[in-house]
Design a protein that fits this description.
With 85 residues, the chain is α+β, with helices and mostly antiparallel strands. The protein contains four helices and four strands; from the N terminus they run αββααββα. Strands 2-1-4-3 form a four-stranded mixed β-sheet. The longest helix has 17 residues. This is Btb/poz domain-containing protein 19-like.
Length: 85
């Protein structure tokens, strides 16, 4: 039963990562011509990563219309996609 519950949690968590519904964070990654925008949930990022906990609560990230906006031009979108998962 516990394994089944854990598996459901993992699936739900993965779905949240893939869904842009109710996101509150936009992360723009890369430099022209290779830029990708990721939509995420700050509470999940902050909970899973001390880096994001610091970044999203500091002046590194801007705010625009209740969204947290964060630019990371020094990382490739393909690399960030692996890291965010």
């Amino acid at each position: 039963m516990n394994d089944e519950l854990n598996q459901c949690f993992v699936i739900d968590f993965s779905n949240l990562l893939e869904s842009s519904q109710d996101f509150d964070t936009k992360i723009k990654v890369g430099e022209e011509p290779n830029i990708k925008e990721f939509k995420a949930h700050s509470i999940i990022l902050s909970t899973r990563s001390t880096y994001f906990k610091t970044v999203l609560s500091s002046q590194w990230a801007g705010r625009e219309n209740r969204l947290i906006i964060f630019d990371k031009p020094n990382i490739l979108p393909s690399v960030f996609e692996i890291l965010i998962k």
